[in-house]
Amino acid sequence: MRDRFRRADRGVSITVTHALTIAITTVLIAMLLMAGGTLLENQKENSARLSLETVGERLSDELSNVDRAAIGTNDEVTATADHPQTVAGSSYTVELLPASECGDGRFLDGSTECLKLTATDADTVVYVPVKIDAEIDDDSKTVSGGTIEIRHRSTGDPTTSEISIHGGTR
């Protein structure tokens, strides 16, 4: 009976069990951290996309309102719109594009002008349709989020006009 307790391999099973438990736990924790990081990144991109769509829809309405307000006048109409400077912790840019340059986004049929909103840190691009009768002025700029100035001017003929966006001065 004493020989049974003298075997040297009894303690090995406990050591191996602990080592395997620690290894498996480490692998599981690493996998959870990686999955959590991916989930957060996806949530940030979704948040940026939704925020850009909201800002784009508001700016689209403002452009349409300025365009309607200037119909039939030779006056220059200027409006300033305040929007968030960042979306989902990322700065963004806004560009007014003619229909020929708009992507194949939702609600774009190739005959409607659009706004292209790009979040710089989230790699997110959103196209929002804009209903305007005016032509897009060559002077229109790519502007950063925040205060945006909308300019509508007549070309001399009351039936034609140009609209543009610029960075605000506030």
Q: How does this model look, in words?
A:
Strand 8 (147-154) and strand 9 (161-167) form a beta hairpin. The N and C termini lie far apart (92 Å). The chain contains 2 helices and 9 strands; from the N terminus they run ααβββββββββ. The protein is α+β, with helices and mostly antiparallel strands and 170 residues long. Strands 2, 3, 4, 5 and 7 form a 5-stranded antiparallel sheet that branches. The protein has a 4-stranded mixed sheet with strand order 1-8-9-6, covered by helices on one side. The chain is rod-shaped and about 105 Å long. The model has no long low-confidence stretch (mean pLDDT 86). The chain has helices at residues 2-5, 10-69, and strands at residues 77-82, 86-87, 90-97, 113-119, 124-130, 135-136, 143-144, 147-154, 161-167. Residues 150-170 are annotated as: Disordered. The chain crosses the membrane at residues 12-40. Keywords: Membrane, Transmembrane, Transmembrane helix.
Terminal residue distance = 92 Å
Mean pLDDT: 86
Task: Round the Cα radius of gyration to an integer and report it.
Answer: 29 Å
Number of strands: 9
Please identify the structural class as seen in this structure.
Answer: alpha+beta
Secondary-structure element pattern, one letter each: HHEEEEEEEEE
**Overall 3D geometry?**
rod-shaped
SS strand fraction? 25-35%
Transmembrane segments: 12-40
Keywords: Membrane, Transmembrane, Transmembrane helix
InterPro entries: DUF7266
Region (Disordered): 150-170
